[in-house]
Design a protein that fits this description.
Layout (H helix, E strand, L loop, with lengths): L2 E6 L3 H16 L3 E2 L8 E6 L4 H12 L9 E5 H7 L2 H5 L3 E5 L7 H9 L5 E3 L20 E5 L1 E2 L10 H5 L3 E2 L2 H13 L4 E5 L16 H9 L6 E5 L8 H9 L6 E3 L7 H6 L6 H13 L5 E8 L6 H14 L3 E6 L17 H23 L6 E10 L4 E5 L5 E5 L11 E9 L4 E5 L2
Parallel strand pairs: 1-2, 1-3, 3-4, 4-5, 5-6, 7-10, 10-11, 12-13, 13-14, 17-19
Antiparallel strand pairs: 8-9, 15-16, 15-18, 16-17, 18-19
Bound molecules: 5'-deoxyadenosine and iron/sulfur cluster (SF4).
The site of iron/sulfur cluster has 13 residues, from α1, α3 and α6.
Length: 436
């Protein structure tokens, strides 16, 4: 039996793709091992969202440059799609390069390698298919990902995704609901709907559902207690999504709505297709919801042309929205993207300064706001036990991490839902005790 190792970089879409790739390989008779040293086939499922992410795969491959030990190396994912055959020049010991839109080709490509081909590629983007497989091997026994839409049709000036994952393709609502029902039967209670832009989901079958209708229906699948979704684009984020969340208690109290910048000028340069006032309106829908919606976002600092005044508008937006969490990045120039050609690049030093200021600003917001949770009882889905601290880890519907103690018991409570009283708070997590 042939052995394989896979390492995954990047977003949840990639993590879930790897679960499908693993299932496909096992279905083909391969056996998964824990280290590249033990494997005959080594897969890297890569990310190219920023230059640093892209470099990781080449660092990994460099290690094996001299001593290949009869191994076969495969590069999957976004770097594979972006760099294509150039990967064979940069890392001559690689023999398979395949982008996410061509993963149904993987079994076939592996056969080609076995029958003597030295180098094989799967790089087509004009595929109608989404990558569905009956063999998905999910890493977590309680929370499952379902891809509802692949690719992205937006043209954000900084972003590689339209080039690496191709145009949008939605799955049918019938197949998504059938998968959710099967997952519930298999004991999963939380589902995370995935897509580069879930809000532009459009059921290709005559049902013709939009994202809000799909979300509501998934939240009504018997046995599914929590539904999350990621990631959203503000342009396509409709009031009906908030109406669904407001009326369906299985839809989690959390929306991740990346804004990228608080300045309409920068948003225009980024080709984000919304103004800051339109974004504010979406935030208002969330604040108007009867349930307390945690709001999180992504920010890019140092996009070409971003002035100090633009940056201050981003800080002002953080203050106004009071985000529950923020992921922030220095702008990174990416191949093929429109922003590559823009003048007025910001220096690395200035980007680092803005990032540090931004993160400190947001940290203080989180410290201030998380204090309000102390004394409250929150329902947590238990994610596991932290041996180092002797505490259990759970997540609230708002996606807040709670580290908590539980009266002595050896029982594994992972996957259960427990009431936890919050006793302390920090910027990134809460501390509590399980309620008897
Ligand atoms: N440089 C920096 N950050 C980026 N992101 C996407 N492209 C880039 C880039 N070229 C960030 C955005 C996006 C998140 C997933 O990564 O904030 O929402
Ligand atoms: Fe990285 Fe984007 Fe590809 Fe996800 S879709 S792996 S974030 S480049």
């Amino acid at each position: 039996m042939k052995t394989f190792y896979i390492e995954t970089f990047g977003c949840q879409m990639n993590a879930h793709d790897s679960e499908k790739v693993v299932g496909t390989l096992i279905g083909q008779g391969y056996q998964q091992v824990e280290t590249p040293d033990d494997a005959e086939l080594v897969f890297y499922n890569t990310c190219s969202i920023r230059d640093k992410a892209e470099q990781k795969v080449f660092n990994r491959l460099d290690r094996f440059k001299r001593e290949q030990q009869g191994k076969t190396f495969a590069v999957l994912g976004c770097v594979a799609q972006q760099e294509g055959e150039k990967i064979f020049e940069k890392a001559p010991h690689v023999s398979l390069v395949c982008g996410s839109a061509s993963y149904n080709q993987l079994p076939n490509l592996l056969v080609q390698l076995e029958t003597g081909n030295k180098r094989v590629t799967g790089l087509s983007l004009d595929t109608e298919d989404t990558f569905e497989t009956p063999y998905t091997r999910r890493d977590n026994p309680h929370r499952a990902y379902i891809t509802i839409i692949e690719g992205c049709d937006k043209k954000c000036a900084y972003c590689v995704v339209p080039f690496t994952r191709g145009p949008e393709r939605s799955s049918t609502s019938a197949s998504i609901l059938a998968e959710a029902a099967q997952l519930a039967k298999d004991g999963y209670s939380e589902i995370q709907l995935l897509g580069q832009n879930v809000n532009s989901y459009r059921d290709p079958s005559p049902t013709g559902w939009d994202f809000a209708q799909l979300l509501d229906a998934v939240g009504k699948v018997p046995g599914i207690r929590r539904v999350r979704f990621t990631t959203s684009h503000p342009r396509d984020f409709t009031k009906s999504i908030m109406d669904a969340i407001g009326s369906n208690p299985h839809l989690c109290n959390h929306v991740h709505l990346p804004v990228q910048s608080g300045s309409s000028d920068v948003l225009r340069a980024m080709q984000r297709s919304y103004s800051i006032d339109e974004y504010r309106q979406r935030i208002q829908w969330m604040k108007d919801c009867a349930r307390p919606i945690a709001i999180t976002t992504d920010i890019i600092v140092g996009f070409p042309g971003e002035t100090e005044a633009d940056f201050e508008q981003t800080l002002a937006l953080l203050e106004e929205v009071q985000y529950d969490n923020m992921f922030s990045f220095k702008y990174s120039r990416r191949p093929n993207t429109p922003a590559l050609a823009l003048d007025d690049q910001i220096t690395e030093e200035e980007k680092s300064r803005r990032l540090a200021v931004l993160q400190e600003f947001q940290r203080n917001i989180q410290i201030r706001n998380n204090v309000a949770y102390v004394g409250r009882v929150e329902e947590c889905m238990v994610e596991g036990f932290n041996k180092a601290t002797g505490q259990w880890m759970g997540r609230t519907s708002q996606h807040k991490m709670v580290n908590f103690l539980r009266p002595a018991s050896d029982a594994d409570i992972t996957g259960q839902y427990l009431e936890v009283r919050v006793t302390r708070s920090g910027p990134n997590s809460l501390v509590g005790e399980a309620v008897q």
